[in-house]
Amino acid sequence: MVASHLRIHIVLAAAAIAMAAGCAFAAGRTHAEKKESVTAQADVRTLQFPAEQSIGSLLSFQPKHENPDAISSYSWGERQLSGAKGLVKVVVPAHHLLVLDANKEVFARPELLNEVPAKGIDVLRLSAISLADNEDGLCDAALGHINGIKSLKALTVDRSEATDAGLSKIKDLPNLRSISTFLSMINGSCFKDLAKLPNLQELSCPKCKLNMSNLAYLPKFPNLQILDLGRDGIDETGAIQIGKCTKLKDISLRGNRGFDDKCLSHLAPLKDLRYLDLGDTRVTAEGLKCLARHKIKFLTLNQALRFQENQLKTIFPDCRINYCAAEKSVTREQRQLYAPLK
User: Fold this and answer.
1) Which residue of 41, 71, 127, 242 pairs with 160 in a disulfide if CB–CB is 3.0 to 4.6 A?
2) Rounded distance between C-alpha atoms, residue 259 and residue 262, angstroms
C-alpha cells in the first residue's frame, strides 16, 4: 500500500514538472514570438550621405503627447543612431521617427542638403543663430535646399533665425505633416505659402512675433488639425481666424494673456476640438460654458480655476483637466541687468 501511494506521488510530481516545463516553454516561446514581432516592426534603412564629411546626426525619437497624432513635442525621447556621413545603415525602432539634426557644415554649405536621400528621413531639424553679420540668413538659405527630401514628415526650425522668406521656399513635399517654428523670427506671412502644402496637419509657432492679420491665412490650410500659438499675443482678431479652421482638433493658446472669454467664444464652431490648452490666459469657468457640448478630452487651465473644479466637471464631465501656474514675467530691472554690454 505504501509503495502504491509512493508511485502515485511520483507520477503526480512528474506530471507537475512536465506541466511546469510545458508552461515555461510556452511562456518562453510567447516571449520569443513577441521579441521577434518587435524586431520585425523595426525599420532598417540604408542611406547615402556626402562621403567627405558629416552633415549632422541621425536620431530616433517617439513623440510624447496626449494627442497621438501630434509630432511636435518638447519632451522628445531621443537616441543617437549614427552620424550622417557616407553610406549609413540604421535600425529605426517601431513607432519611432528618424531625425536628421543638421550641423554647422550644412549652414556653411547649404547645397549639401541636395545630397540627402529623397526617402528615409522623417524629421529635419535646422537651428542656426548668427554670431556675426556675415552669418545672417543661414537658416533661410538651408531651407531653399530641402525640397528634394520627399519623405519628410516634420520640419523644425526652433530657436533659429528662420524668417517667413525662408519658410516660403518650402514646396512639393507631399508627406510633410508638421512644421515647428518655436522662438524663430517669423511674423506669419509665410502662412500664405505654407497653406499650399496639402497634407500639413500641425503648425507649432509659440513665442513668435506674429502679425494678427497673417492669421487670416490659417483657414486656407486644407487639413490643419493641430495648432500651437502659445505666447503669441493672440487677441480677438486672431481668435476669429482660428475659429474658421473647422478641422482643428488640438489648440494651444497658453500664455496669451489678452485671450479672454470673448475670444474663446469664437472657438465655439470647432466641433472636432478634443485638446485645448488655455493655461495662463484670462478665460474663466463661466466663459468655458460655450464649449460645453464639445467632446473635449484634455483641457489645461489656470491654477486659479482649480477652486471651481466642481463647476468645471459639470461642464466637461468626461474631460481630463490639468492646471498650470502662470509664467513669471521678466521685470524691467531684470532686462536691464542681463542686457548686452554696450
Assistant:
1) 127
2) 8
Q: Are 170 and 148 in contact (CB under 8 A)?
A: no
- Quick check: 322 and 311 in contact, CB under 8 A? no
Helices (H), the chain: 2-41, 104-108, 138-143, 164-167, 191-194, 236-242, 261-265, 309-315, 332-337
Is the CB of residue 183 less than 8 Å from the CB of residue 158? Answer: yes
CB atoms within 10 A of CB 302: 18
Q: How far apart are CA 61 and CA 45, in angstroms?
A: 15
φ and ψ at residue 288, rounded to 5 degrees: -70, -10
Backbone angles phi, psi at 260, to 5 degrees: -120, -170
**CA dist., res. 139 & res. 162, Å (int):** 5
CA-atom Rg of the chain in angstroms: 27
245 grid coordinates: 479652421
Task: Please report the DSSP string for 65-130 in residue order.
Answer: -SSTT----S--EEEEEEESSSEEEEEEPTT-EEEEEE-HHHHHSGGGGGGS-SSS--EEE-----
Contact 245, 266 (CB under 8 A): no
DSSP 3-state percent helix, strand, coil across the chain (nearest 5): 35, 20, 50
Cell 499675443 identifies what position?
233
CA distance 6 to 12: 10
| Cα 220 to Cα 184: distance, rounded to the nearest angstrom | 22
**Mean pLDDT in consecutive groups of 10 residues from the start of the chain, 342 residues:** 44 46 45 45 94 95 77 68 96 93 95 97 88 74 97 96 97 95 97 97 97 98 97 98 98 97 98 97 97 96 95 96 79 47 46
What type of residue is 233? G
> Considering the entire predicted model, what is its pTM?
0.83
